[in-house]
Design goal:
9 helices, Ribosomal Protein S5, domain 2, 10 strands, 2 domains, six-stranded mixed beta sheet, single chain, four-stranded antiparallel beta sheet, globular
Amino acid sequence: MTLSKTARAKVNLYLHVAAPDARGYHPLQSLVVFADIGDEVALSPAQGCQLSIKGPFSQGLSRGEDNLVMKAVRRFEAFAGTRLSHDILLTKNLPIASGIGGGSADAGAVLTLLRQAYAPDMGDDDLASLAGAIGADGVMCLWSQPAVAEGYGEKLTPIDLPSVPAVLINPLVECSTAAVYAGFDAQGKFNDLEAGRGFSGIVNIDDMVTALSHTRNDLQAPAIRMQPVIAQVLTDLEAQQETLFARMSGSGATCFALCRTDEDAEALSVRLRVMYPSGWGRRCRLG
């Protein structure tokens, strides 16, 4: 029997980043939500384990051991003491290096499916440990639930938020996370990790926009220096009547616009496809 799961796109509604510690890692605070769109991961019975990749953003992706999906597979095999007898098909619908957690979400989806197929008694803590070893956003992308992320991204406080209409837009320029952080460090200006406690009791889009207006994405400026088109995308989003709030997600280059209704989001997404014919854009709901 084939098992499948959507690896949902992650959106950082805000992202506060502190100065690097002695190890060079950055403490952070972020409000993460997840879209109802993403990559697709499927397991099919086989003699061994082979990764295949298809989809609009499959070109150039490694199918080898350096792919986060295969890293998740090997960690699961080592923990569970088993060898897989399933092939994996990854349908890559999300842009690469785009600030919406695609690779980590893919790894989280495959871990969830592997537990279902091989180790249904495995506890959540053990599964989270495997996901966390793959990347800083591994645990949040495993559960795909709204949360305030702290520490280095591994400390998650679940939060109740309404589902809100949104549009994601990426001009299809890549933003290397490492390079964006290097640009952030080069600024030499670091803020405190304040603000993120003001999101309890959010019941509608107006509450959310008000709360977000007191936050920021500290990686937005260095990402714009690397890819100036991001600034134009944000300017264009903010100029649209359907946009209630716009910001870049993660380390970029994907930006998001929050809208009041699904109809507004659809109208905005159609217009953006005309404005950015060579870009990638999708209407979705975030929650």
